[in-house]
Amino acid sequence: MAEFEAAADAAGELGLRVYLSPAFRSGGMVLEEPGRMVPVFDEERGFQGLADAIAFIEKQSGRHGDLVRGMLAPDRVETSTLALIERTDAAARELGCKFRLHMAQGVMEVDTVRKLHGSTAPVWLAKAGLLSERLIAPHATNATEEDLALYAENGVSIVHCPLVSSRGGSTLSSFSSCRKRGINIAMGTDTAPADMLMNLLVGLITCRINDGAPDQIRCADLFDAATLGGARALGRSDLGHLSPGARADIAVFDLDDTVMAPSIDPITTLVTGGSGKVTRAVFVDGRLSMRERQVARIDMRRAREQAQAQFDRLIAKYPERSWANPPVYEIFPPSYPVEVAQHG
Fold first, then answer.
1. Is the N or C terminus of the chain more exposed, i.e. has fewer CB atoms within 10 Å?
2. Which keywords accompany this UniProt record (predicted)?
């Protein structure tokens, strides 16, 4: 809880629009032996996590001029019991917020849910009446035709994170077909670098590969998903567009940057250029939050060094968390062998 309370305070200090609450779950996947993962559940722990998240939202939502709002975040569908998701949905309805649930995103999840419930996760939840416009569902890369039809029928929004999905060897199949079904698609990052323009380019490429044609999707479709699609997923008609009555959330891009190709259309240039490094300034609710890569009230160089040190400590703990406790260089092998000269 303290970490998320600090994040809410940081959002107010930095001028960031955020949707927050601590994640919770009823269980987790435990490695019993290489190649065998099993789900282990503690439902009361999940209920307590939900209660903590509700308390956080009730305390924090609306702070800092409404920059901070709540969103319930059960961790993953395969680590959630039906009772936990039912209570989460009821809480989201009462709080007037959304809930995010990773679903239809990987082979292990699909196989686990089938063993536990006899169907895919979207089918399982649909039978329980738990698919609705309150649900935001990353990543849908393993969604079946039946799953996608249920999303469309019940108003579920997909969060498309093409960079992280493609790194793992999967894609949304496909962006254009989901749009034709009437599914709302928002864009996410979910990995480092958290570069939205890079994700738009990867999304454009993977969609056209899946479609086997270049004319089923336009750059504007991806741009709309990153702006209007995200706003729709959050239920915000005052975000995602520049018009009277909307919040003044504005990103400024430099199309004259030397890394960008000559431009004939700004949206096409931004999406096919695929680099957020051309972002020159960001305003959130009319307040300048970033200019020339400097975030207000943050020493970016010091923050980068601090992040690397924290990451190094995390990596150093992987051997004790891994089967048979292999050394770090076996868990994260270098791209090329590293030879160390021996002297004496």
1. C
2. Hydrolase
Per the CB < 8 A criterion, the answer to whether 282 and 252 are in contact is yes
DSSP result, 9-52 = HHHHHHT--EEE---B-SEEEEEEETTEEEEEE-HHHHHHHHHH
Find the radius of gyration of the CA atoms of the chain: 21
Measured in whole angstroms, the distance separating CA 204 from the mean position of its chain's CA atoms is: 18
The type of residue at 67 is: L
Rounded to a whole number, what is the largest CA-CA distance in the chain? 74
Give the phi and the psi of residue 288 in degrees, each rounded to 5.
Answer: -70, 120
Q: What is the pTM of this model?
A: 0.93
CA 100 – CA 89 distance, rounded (Å):
10
Q: What token pair was written down for 268?
A: 């096409």
Encoded amino acid at 61, one letter? S
DSSP class of 16? -
Task: Provide the pLDDT confidence category of residue 344 given band limits of 50, 70 and 90.
Answer: low
User: How many CA atoms within 13 Å lie on the side-chain side of 295?
Assistant: 15
The per-residue pLDDT for range 243-267, each reduced to its tens digit, is 999 999 999 999 988 888 788 899 9
Buried b (16+ CB within 10 A) or exposed e, 233-251: bbebeebbeeeeeebebeb
pLDDT in tens, 187-232: 999 999 999 999 999 999 999 999 999 999 999 999 999 999 999 9
